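User: Um, any thoughts?
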Amino acid sequence: MADLVRPAVRDGLWRWRECLLGLGVALIGLWWLNTFYSPVQWIGWAILAAGAVWAVAGWQRARFRSTGEGPGVVQINERRLAYFGPLTGGVIDIEDMSLLELEPTAIPAPHWVISGMGGQSLAIPVNAKGADALFDAFASLPGIRTEAMLDVLSRTPDARVTVWRRNHPALH
């Protein structure tokens, strides 16, 4: 059955799956709005709103996703981020992150450079296997703007860009 669809089309549909499902749910809500009357129309509005939110979240995730064919493996377990690469690797707690940067000139692909409060640093290729899970980890950082993060990732600047920095409270 999988042979009926070209691999490139299948990969594209899989990348945009959440956005497409959200649009489908929104269409069902729109259909309920136009088909049924008063009490059910309110449910249609709720379904339409939920589908729209799902589609927007799916749009953001699809823009973040990569092929997953890069070097190394990313794992996130209980708010602890681990990267196991062929030459480097390491572990950092998400709560200990103090700086998130994108290094576009890294070889073979751009890298996320994560710095911790203790001075440790972790470089993760954006196309490493399991790097899709980084979207949720990065989105949970206090004060991060996910749209700015996605813009930096999509335009691939010439030099290292700071995506997020933890604000340290002043002591006095």
Remarks:
- The two ends are 66 Å apart (CA to CA).
- The helical segments are 7-15, 17-35, 38-64, 134-139, 146-155.
